[in-house]
Amino acid sequence: MSLITTHVLDTTTGTPARGIAVKLVGSEGAPLGSGTTDADGRIADLGPEKLPAGAYRLVFATAEYFASREVAHFFPEVTLTFAVDASAEHYHVPLLLSPFGYSTYRGS
Q1: CA-to-CA distance for 10 and 13, rounded, in angstroms?
Q2: Using one digit for the tens of pLDDT, what is the confidence trace for 32-57?
Q3: Which intervals hold domain Transthyretin/hydroxyisourate hydrolase (predicted)?
Q4: Span 4-104: which CATH code?
């Protein structure tokens, strides 16, 4: 299992956001993994099983998602920066998305 997983929910429709491309990027900007949300809005295999402690980013390609639905939107991309500590436990980073806002939290 990937150390980092994500889940995207479209809060305007109350449904999973299918087909969003997501990149996992290291602190130096190097790509570490990528995937596309499935029918349940999830990516379970986003990157390596282990990562050193540090800052990482998830970059969500939201413009394509909203454009495919012909929905006006404000954020063409959402970037979430989070810290991985040395304990190397699993990190689930969900995104709650709407055309003009978003929120996130550390999931389980």
Answers
A1: 6
A2: 999 999 999 999 999 888 889 999 99
A3: 4-107
A4: 2.60.40.180
pTM score of the predicted model: 0.94
Amino acid at 15: T
Closest by CA position to 75, among listed 67, 87, 86, 83: 67
- Give the 3-state secondary structure of residue 9: strand
Q: How far apart are CA 78 and CA 51, in angstroms?
A: 22
| Spatial CB neighbours of 85, under 8 Å, sequence gap ≥ 6 | 53
- Give the torsion sign (CA, 78, 8, 99, 69): positive
Nearest CA to 20 out of 2, 38, 5 is that of 38
Domain spans, the chain:
4-104
